[in-house]
Design a protein that fits this description.
By secondary structure, the chain is α+β, with helices and mostly antiparallel strands. Helix content is 21%, strand content 54%.
Length: 125
């Protein structure tokens, strides 16, 4: 099964803004996550519970850095992300996500953020 880059990027975008139902429907049974404040294997239900607040992010920008398909049903993509948190704070990170293809479609099975420093706004001269 060849992965559709645009389909996967749309899934990624929706994971940034989606609710618990979206997470439950689109994450695999278990997902390995790596964030500065949490890391480990999470069940589908535990991962979905992290998406309690709608509109957690806004002004999301994603710049794909690479995508590999190590198997016919596995794909991993990496991208730069910039967004604004719900509280207005800027956020940027290098993000990697792994998907596995199940009968119901692509399911997220790995997700990691490596925060980077948001670009400072340039002063007007």
């Amino acid at each position: 099964m060849a992965a559709n880059r645009d389909e996967l990027l749309e899934l990624e975008r929706a994971f940034w803004t989606g609710n618990q139902d979206f997470f439950a429907e689109n994450a695999d049974r278990e997902c390995l996550v790596a964030f500065p404040d949490m890391a480990g294997v999470m069940s589908n239900a535990d991962l979905a519970a992290t998406a309690k607040k709608p509109n957690r992010w806004r002004n999301l920008e994603m710049k794909l850095q690479g995508m590999v398909e190590p198997g016919s049903d596995i794909v991993v993509l990496t991208y730069e992300a910039k967004a604004i948190r719900e509280n207005g704070e800027p956020y940027s990170a290098l993000v990697s996500t792994g998907y596995v293809h199940r009968l119901q479609g692509w399911k997220m099975m790995f997700h990691a953020h490596t925060p980077t420093k948001p670009e400072a706004k340039k002063a007007k001269s």
